[in-house]
Write a structure and sequence with these properties.
The protein has three helices and five strands. It is of the alpha+beta class. The chain starts with 6 loop residues before the first strand and ends in a 7-residue tail after the last strand.
Length: 139
């Protein structure tokens, strides 16, 4: 049975420049701050950054994988608090997602609060998902 305070298994996602190119092709967001160090620097960024929606999507993947078959996400929100800098290396960078069940509501939904970090720094803030139960892991 899922309980308030239960933690979700930690998920990590590696993000490389190649991933940014593939995401740009799929999303249509070809802004050069996502692939060119010189263009990123020209607008005051310390380097190439991941697409914000790519980061959000990876977090959503962690939540839906945990929630399991039959569950659905009713709401999902976050604030971008720091860019995800992606170095021009084969290793790229690691995005880490931790979470816990923050609230079980009378209507059967549950709120999950998530912490999203990269290189030890929080990159998304106030990240929350409201889940409609299905076959939630641990139940």
């Amino acid at each position: 049975m899922t309980a308030t305070g239960e933690t979700l298994p930690r998920r990590t996602f590696r993000v490389t420049r190649g991933d940014l190119v593939r995401y740009a092709a799929a999303s249509g967001d070809h802004n050069p701050i996502h692939w060119s160090d010189s263009r990123a620097a020209a607008v005051g960024l310390p380097g190439v950054i991941a697409h914000g929606m790519l980061s959000m999507g990876l977090v959503a993947t962690a939540v839906t994988d945990w929630a399991g078959e039959g569950a659905s996400v009713r709401e999902y929100s976050t604030r971008f608090s720091r860019p995800v800098l992606v170095p021009d290396t084969d290793e790229g960078v690691t995005l880490t997602v931790d979470g816990k069940v923050a609230e079980l509501r009378p209507d059967g939904t549950m709120r999950v609060d998530l912490t999203v970090s990269c290189g030890g720094a929080k990159v998304l803030a106030r990240t929350r998902a409201l889940l409609v139960p299905g076959a939630v892991a641990g139940t």
